[in-house]
Design the sequence.
């Protein structure tokens, strides 16, 4: 009986996910959660700045996370480890209590840019806004790569 | 008012304990990730300070020290302002076909870089100037001049130039140009008044530090150029990025050859002013390709595509 209990606990410990309890927070304005751990994999969802996820697995710079009933992968460069609540000064208001207001979203932010713009109307922020609006969707990138016989390679 | 604002970000001792007991704060301490290009130190530092119930003021003043402590969001706003200043000096070229071509090539390279995602992604623009020049503002705003574009002979060369600029972003070379005094000033203000909205006095001081930081970066990008080691590092990284994306990294050595023939003494600024002479960079890049086994071939489809877009 004791052996059975011991075996049960050993099995339970070994079955626990390696990343149990680890969280990540999205630190990009938006990022795709992809079906596989590569940029050419289809997006199953779009995560926003400040969204938090439990890490199910970590591999090759990607985190496996759950989105509803599905699972997908977020690239580490769009995240920070830990649960960080972003402030109202950023792009997402803190959803929880005022105590959760934040550590990110302060410093050089939209409010500072607003003052800088007002002080320097000659700066061409309108052109920067237009530049940011130019986006290339996944399908166009894949088509462009295929047409140019571009195949990704492993680092050397 | 200030106390009230600070109270919104500093949890009460009781609330903090409750949250810690619930495990909510246990995961706040971000630990960073070896080899991960996104800097998380600033958040880690602030989180640790929060946990110790120190004031954010102390955290800001004592713990955020250098450009690498800037968050991705702060880097983005700095990059936007640097880009706005560049675009007030150089007119953007409104050529839909070429802009789409440069952006799609750039996105493929960004995905192959060591930092595929920045706060708001990478964006590429052609700017009107006869200079042979390219700039990268922090966060991923990349510019190449029409003068440089006219000297390109292939998509591999375009990819090499874009990969070099992307590498300046991933290596945070622009941010490193901010003088320590300006950062210290900013971190001190941020630390003492860190909340939803700044008061008029703090906002004015912070904007002054912001403006000085922007000027430091633009001065480096447009006037002085990067250091010798930064250019070599960006070249080295660019070869890897181009290779991983599927390009022939030899596009960099070819373009540096063109640059060497046009600017034997490295006059000018930015890409044009190559602190290490272009011939030295070309030689270094060729050695790197050989030693790392990065040699590849250019597909005919890409050379044909480049010619098609050159006509547009």
Sequence:
């Amino acid at each position: 009986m004791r052996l059975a209990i011991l075996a049960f606990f050993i099995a339970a410990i070994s079955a626990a996910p390696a990343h149990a309890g680890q969280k990540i927070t999205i630190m990009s304005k938006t990022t795709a959660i992809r079906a596989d751990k590569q940029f050419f994999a289809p997006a199953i969802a779009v995560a926003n700045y400040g969204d938090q996820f439990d890490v199910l697995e970590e591999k090759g710079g990607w985190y496996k996370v759950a989105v509803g009933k599905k699972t997908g992968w977020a690239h580490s460069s769009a995240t920070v480890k830990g649960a960080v609540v972003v402030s109202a000064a950023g792009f997402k208001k803190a959803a929880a209590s005022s105590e959760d207001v934040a550590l990110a979203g302060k410093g050089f932010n939209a409010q500072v840019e607003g003052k800088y713009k007002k002080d320097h109307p000659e700066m061409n922020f309108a052109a920067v806004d237009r530049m940011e609006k130019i986006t290339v969707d996944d399908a166009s990138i894949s088509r462009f790569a295929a047409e140019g016989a571009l195949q990704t390679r492993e680092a050397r | 008012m200030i106390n009230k604002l600070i109270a919104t970000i500093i949890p009460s001792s009781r609330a903090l304990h409750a949250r810690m007991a619930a495990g909510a704060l246990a995961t706040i301490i971000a630990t960073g990730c070896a080899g991960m290009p996104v800097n998380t130190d600033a958040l880690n530092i602030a989180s640790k300070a929060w946990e110790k119930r120190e004031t954010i003021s102390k955290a800001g003043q004592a713990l955020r020290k250098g450009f690498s402590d800037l968050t991705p969001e702060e880097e983005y706003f700095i990059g936007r302002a640097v880009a706005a200043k560049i675009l007030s000096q150089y007119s953007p070229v409104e050529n839909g076909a070429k802009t789409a071509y440069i952006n799609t090539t750039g996105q493929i390279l960004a995905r192959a870089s060591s930092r595929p995602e920045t706060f708001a992604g990478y964006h590429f623009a052609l700017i009107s100037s006869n200079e042979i020049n390219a700039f990268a503002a922090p966060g991923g705003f990349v510019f190449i001049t029409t003068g440089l574009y006219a000297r390109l002979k292939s998509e591999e060369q375009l990819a090499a130039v874009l990969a070099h600029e992307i590498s300046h972003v991933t290596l945070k070379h622009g941010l490193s140009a901010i003088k320590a005094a300006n950062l210290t000033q900013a971190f001190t203000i941020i630390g003492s008044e860190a909340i939803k909205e700044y008061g008029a006095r703090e906002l004015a001081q912070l904007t002054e530090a912001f403006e000085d930081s922007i000027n430091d970066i633009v001065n480096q990008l447009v006037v002085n150029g990067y250091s010798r080691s930064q250019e070599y590092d960006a070249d080295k990284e660019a070869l890897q990025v181009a290779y991983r994306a599927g390009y022939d990294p030899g596009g960099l050595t070819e373009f540096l050859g063109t640059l060497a023939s046009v600017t034997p003494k490295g006059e000018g600024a930015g890409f044009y002013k190559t602190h290490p002479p272009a011939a030295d960079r070309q030689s270094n890049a060729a050695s790197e390709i050989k030693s790392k086994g990065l040699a590849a071939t250019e597909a005919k489809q890409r050379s044909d595509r480049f010619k098609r877009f050159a006509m547009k």
About this structure: The two ends of chain B are 59 Å apart (CA to CA). DSSP finds 14 helices and four strands in chain B. The beta strands of chain B are 91-92, 123-128, 134-137, 141-145. Chain B touches chain A through 89 residues (CB under 8 Å).
